[in-house]
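Course exercise 7: structure representation. Students receive a sequence record and must write out the corresponding structure in token form. The form below is the worked example handed out in class, using Core-2/I-branching beta-1,6-N-acetylglucosaminyltransferase family protein (380 residues). Read each field label carefully; the graders check that inputs and outputs are placed in the correct fields and that the protein name is recorded exactly as given.

STUDENT ID: A-19
EXERCISE PROTEIN: Core-2/I-branching beta-1,6-N-acetylglucosaminyltransferase family protein
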Amino acid sequence: MQSRGVALEEGKERSSQSKPLRPLRLLVLFFALCVVFSVISIYTVKHFGIESVVTTVNSNFQPCYYEEPGGLDKWIRPPLSLIHNMSDKELLWRASFVPRIKNYPYPRVPRIAFMFLTKGPMPLAPLWERFLKGHEKLFSIYIHSLPSYQPQFPPSSVFYSRQIPSQVSEWGRMSMCDAERRLLANALLDISNEWFILLSESCIPLYNFSFVYHYIMKSKHSFMGAFDDPGPFGRGRYNENMAPLVNITKWRKGSQWFEVNRKLAITIVEDSTFHPIFEQYCRPACYVDEHYFPTMLTIQAANVLANRSITWVDWSRGGAHPATFGRNDINEEFFNRVRGGHTCLYNNRNSSVCVLFARKFAPSALEPLLHMVDSKVLDY
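STUDENT ANSWER:
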């Protein structure tokens, strides 16, 4: 029994002496790995340079947050999406930003912003697709419709995802002018947009894109009607409570459909002086969309207005709304009449080209209008 006990004690002693050997082996292995890693690192730096090593390591780093680029790009690139959560007050404030240096520090290509004010569907969209095809770098599109309307344009369409955050607008009310300012403000967020054209879903272009682009870009004036109408539908709508800010001698009337340059567009969206006066005192039978912009701009910038619109409408049939043209109205003679027989001033010189767009065209007019394009009556 004694010899067995001695053997057990000796076994325990040997076992206790062998335990420290395992951590020692791990420590030796760790130092060996460090030596190997150091040799590899020295070899890599010696043959490839430290910059390549750092670059290789950094290239695999993916930040877990989005960081705005620090250069000019964040200021000049158009918004990735037209959808935002800004209120009108925030939007107009943001859109009023303007650079003080006139010369752009990069090769800017000016665009035309085509702004469509519509209740919903755009039945003449295929005609506009033909007009715009091949000129994608020279235009942008914005659509203000009823908030409930969900457009169904395919991804290949120039109208795809071009709907801005909208609100309900009523004809003859300030909400209509608010919709127009909303379109301008959203379009101003793209620094490339230089001209802003307000259109409806019933408008069509009368000439090809190149002609329209150069006519507008070379104009020294913005196109907005602003005339003094002494009759009941002009001065007869004036409210004396608008004085002294708006005097009856400056009261103007004009077409709702305008074409303005960037400087004038900013003047419109930044206004906080005339808007509340017109909202309060110009209500039906004073139709604010015919008086607000023409009067305000006559007071502030009359010298830059051409005092005419380049969107043709036919009021010859009388009534509160212009004539609408359908399938049976569309032929070559019709367009010769619309585009010809006019004289106007363009850059202070007489011109026979006075209108570039026309309205109102019914959905039934689409097929014959496309035929006019195919037959080169409408050359686009």
